[in-house]
What does this fold into?
Amino acid sequence: MVVRADKRCLVLRNGEYQRCLKPGTHWKPWFAVLETYSINEEFEPLSSSIELVTTNETIAAELDLVSADDGQIALWFVDGNFVDVLGPGKHAFWKSARKNSFTIVDLNVPFIDESIDRMILRRRELSEYVAAYSVEPHESGILYIDKEQNEILSPGNYFFWKGSKSIDVTKVDLRQQQIEIAGQDIMTKDRIPVRLSFFCQLRIVDVLRSVASINDYTAQLYVLLQLALREYVGSFSLDEVLAKREEIGSFVKDKLKDQAAEFGVELIHAGIKDVVLPGEIKEILNQVLIAEKKSQANVIMRREETASTRSLLNTAKLLEENKILYHLKELEYIERISEKISQISLNGGGHLIEELKRLFVPENKEDR
It folds into this structure.
């Protein structure tokens, strides 16, 4: 019989394994039962258990043996390349030109040794043994082992063995967030209802406080923002609230600064988006605004009229004191009038030229 290079053959007599036939040509004993195995697969005896077969030193010398206890697994490598996962128990592989190697993993220890390539951990064969978590660049993670906080995880990919200990990662978004209070009805000091839309921008600065020490910090901050708004608006009249609307955000931010720090949160900016008044109050304010604008317009008109009258008075005094200036002014107005005249018809005989001469030419030196 011929045993090929990728095969091994075991000889059995009376149900017991006698020896191993290596590649080559052999005589088959008349009493023997032969079992052929591939060296590329794990050795699993057909007629006995691996423990009984390996008691034969001749056969055991041809095998690479590995054992994994309960709670352990063995990673099987051939020539340094991962092949498969071996569960608890004893395993055997045929020695050949290819080198078998094994890594024993204790699943009761969740942390994975750095010597194990992370690419192997993503293989389908290890999916039921490995828990994978990803923490994004804008996140921070809290690692819990058996429900107890273990460490803070920075951005990256993390792998843990699934075993007797439970693994959980809570991720926290570190980006700037915004809480909005829309349409909050509040009564002013003079008992006028106003509806405010308020916003507050914040970010998490202490991951443990925001997650481990408080339940839903956004809901609690929302209530605190409402109370701070009521306190501020309720202490001022409507006119004061409208005049100080830019200060409301600073007041709320300063008021809640310490409480937000207890939640592991930093308040960045806060402010009023809209102030909505009841219809009748809005109409009254519009009337007041119109009256104020009319009053301002009247004041401006009176001021302009006074300035114009004063200018006319100054001009009249100059014309009265200077005859030449007076005549120049007359000529200026005549010129303006003549620009609008396209045709002149003269009637009146020879006296017309004398009248024009008298009008434009002074009669004596005193008039010059």
Observations:
- The mean pLDDT is 84.
- The chain has three domains: 1-98, 107-175, 177-277.
- The chain is about 35% helix and 35% strand.
- The longest strand covers residues 193-204.
